[in-house]
Hints:
- This protein is α/β, with parallel strands linked by helices.
- It has two domains: 8-176 and 288-372, 3-Layer(aba) Sandwich (Aminopeptidase), CATH 3.40.630.10; 178-286, Alpha-Beta Plaits.
- The protein has helices at 8-16, 28-40, 104-125, 144-148, 202-213, 263-274, 296-309, 324-331, 356-372, and strands spanning 44-51, 54-60, 68-74, 94-95, 98-100, 131-136, 159-164, 175-176, 178-187, 230-238, 248-257, 278-286, 317-318, 336-338, 353-355.
- The strands form four sheets. A six-stranded mixed sheet has the order 1-2-6-3-7-14, sandwiched between helices.
- Strand 4 and strand 5 (98-100) form a beta hairpin.
- The mean pLDDT is 97.
Amino acid sequence: MTLSLQDPAALTQYLVRANTINPPGNEAALAADLEQMLADMGLLTIIQPLSPGRANLVAWNEDAKGPRLCFTGHLDTVPLGSAHWTQDPFGAEVIDGRLYGRGSSDMKSGIAAFLCALHNFQMEFGRLPAVLVVLTAGEETGCEGAKRLSETSVGAFDVGALIVGEPTSGQCMVGHKGALWLKAETSGKTAHGAMPELGDNAIYHAVNAIQKLRQFDFLVPTDPLLGNPTLNVGRIEGGLNVNSVPDSTVFDIDVRTVCGLEHDELSGRLGTYMGAKVKLRVSVDVPALSNDLENPWIHSVAAIVKSVTRVVPRERTVAFFSDGPVLRQLFGDVPAVVLGPGEPSCAHKTDEWCNVERIHQCVTIYFNLLKDWKS
């Protein structure tokens, strides 16, 4: 199938049929396909290799004047899971108006919608707007690709605002909590289970630390947009067999943070709080995303979305993290919205799908945002 910018649903199908499950990712081949498409539009491009088979793609128009509107999306998807799919996860079949497949909602439909909107803008006005397109690898496992962009010249671009094409059912969202995932390890001394007094039980140390975590106080006020930070112990593993004292235990901590919580400081405070028996290592570190709700561009986006969808959103934040705040560390504190055609309730699920009508609707939203942009 040849890539085309005429039909966003067909382009979404092409993207979904490319297996970019992370791990291992294998985003480089898809990035190369999209690079050719963007180059054919007249955009300059950079492919940034990350590791064998993995790459970021950045594209921009050379003659833009003034700040750029940046769109970002990720090329990788999560694994399929163990449950049976009733639809081929890479078939991208359309059934009753739903396009099925892994990545259809999260978030290949968002990428397809934006690229088609960019094409439509070029066809109507005979030029490209001031844009920067950033398509990343490794978002699903902690925004690896976005963090590696600091090794390029991308941060030198003058960016005025940011659109993150994650699934929001076509609504404008203005924030999400940060994610700090910690791997905790306790050590002890093995001994026969019949003589536990000769050993040092690492599981007991872990249990004591986990019990303390249930009373941990973040010592921050409630964020007016993001609410309160949360903490959850999501996995624990330890011991060799039932009749031995375990000498090692590992447990994973998922902390969701709000603005103002510095992750380095928080990690250190958690380590001190749990005590010397616990060693901590950071596995994922993504900041929170928030905005000045009085920003004129934020108001403009909300108005455009409402004019297209005829819906007043009830929520203003999403539950998941994104590349958005990582890119903000490159571009500065620019306004940033999360806005894409995918269904957030379908992300990471078996039989993931996206509404085809919503994809076309989001093309219109993105087109109007490009038209409204000062370029």
